[in-house]
Design a protein that fits this description.
The chain is α/β, with parallel strands linked by helices. It has helices spanning 28-35, 63-75, 86-89, 94-108, 127-142, 161-166, 177-192, 200-206, 212-234, 237-245, 253-264, 275-282, 312-316, 324-328; strands at 11-12, 51-56, 80-85, 114-119, 147-153, 168-171, 333-334, 337-338.
Amino acid sequence: MEQIWRADEFYQEIPDMNLAMVTGQEPWKTVFQGCCPDSELEEWMVLPKTWLFLLTGGAGYGKTYLTRAFAGELGEQGYRFLRLYGADLQGETQNETIRRISGLLEELFRGDPVFLMLQALESLKEEAAWLELARGLEHVRDRDLPVVVAALTEKEEELSPYLRRIFQICSFSLPDKTDRTEYFRDCWENVMGEPETLSFIRMAELTEGLCYGQLEQIRLCVSALLRKKGLTVFKTPEGFRKAVETGRLRLTERTFRQAVDAIGKKKVPKEERKPEEERQAADYDAVKLTAGKKAGENFAGRGISDSIKDRGKEEEMMPEDISLEALFSVSSRFRPGNQEDD
């Protein structure tokens, strides 16, 4: 017996995140925040209930992460989270594809608040399928149903003009220096306080041309490497925690550069380094960790430091550098979604 395709089988749990957790991504983050229902604001400014967004940009630019944060924000307002890929709508025949699209639209027409995340929309091949989807979404918008659609694609030019016409196109690009500075500050400031020798601005300079996905891989790799080194030196989690709280551990440029080289594949030529940077490269790593909130909890997941103030025998115990590429290969998930999502 042929299995019946059902759109309601693609509902997922609401992501445990919101737009306040997103760094950068302006102006779209602010636009999405403004789209969220607010009964008090609607007394003097009425906005539509239906929103159709098309997020475009390369892999790792943060489309998936921002979309999931948007879903989490709307989930707090009672929206359900429906997530599909274009391939989920593509049937073996054109008629089957049309039936699946019709089933999806019927689910949206039920009138329940729904956030639809539609990824890799270019997987739909037939022009008739694009037209059916475009017309259906237009009808949803005409009825002003509580439906928010975020379609994601890396190849906007491959989409039908029918689809591009009905969507608000949100173009994503690589984070600029300000975005990258704010990213590292947002990740680490509450844990380590203001850096002493490796500033957030310097981190941004060393990561020129990298996308959000690569920035997150760098953060995770640095954190994992420093935790391994710290536990080797201080023997126990409790000893490591005390070192964190007393500021005996620091992150220096050497470890940060290792992560950039391994993840970003972007080596900084030696001749570009200042004399002071050469001295730091021989040290362990800059960015002082204070005993701020969650200092004891965050050593496993945040960028902590590894320069040791009181060297002595502890310095002799510091292990050789670990291969960051090998270290990161054990996990393919990072904050903006996994690598296949961007």
